[in-house]
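note to self: dont lose this again. the chain is below, predicted strucutre after it. 180 aa total, dont forget to put it in the shared folder this time
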Amino acid sequence: MTQRPAGAGGGARPPATAGDRIRAALVSCFGLGYAPVASGTFGTLGGVALVWLLAQVAVPRFGWHFGVAAVVCAALVLLLGIALGGWAERYYGFKDPKPFVLDEVLGYLIAVFRWGEGVPGTKELVLAFFAFRLFDVVKPPPARRLEFLPKGVGIMLDDLVAGLYALALVWVVRDYLEWP
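---
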């Protein structure tokens, strides 16, 4: 998506406060969103790291079901993204600013969801990554329309839909084609 000004205003941004720096770290997934190219792809790596933590720590150590853990994390990321979306648009001066990559984390968490037992394997995680990136770029209906909703809602919901499309593709490949 091209950067569009978030609204009226202009001029130099005031110096960042400590709160601004914390919010910027969160919305950029600790700096991944500042990648000079393909910030969405780099931001999705934050979702990959979170899924790895769920699969390697939360599921085995605490006995959590992977699907439940992924949905809980996705819900928390969604709420955080919606809450910080308006701030990010004001802070960066654009609608859906490039450094804001919580939406990519959300989309990837949705793309790897599973009902069954166990955790996704490497092939499934890679398939989910590329499927999510494809649908995030293509933005099939209604994703394209959702990104025009205001503030954090619009930022987050188009990637939620892209994650659902990716999940559908992963399910078909995994459960019906029996790969990976």
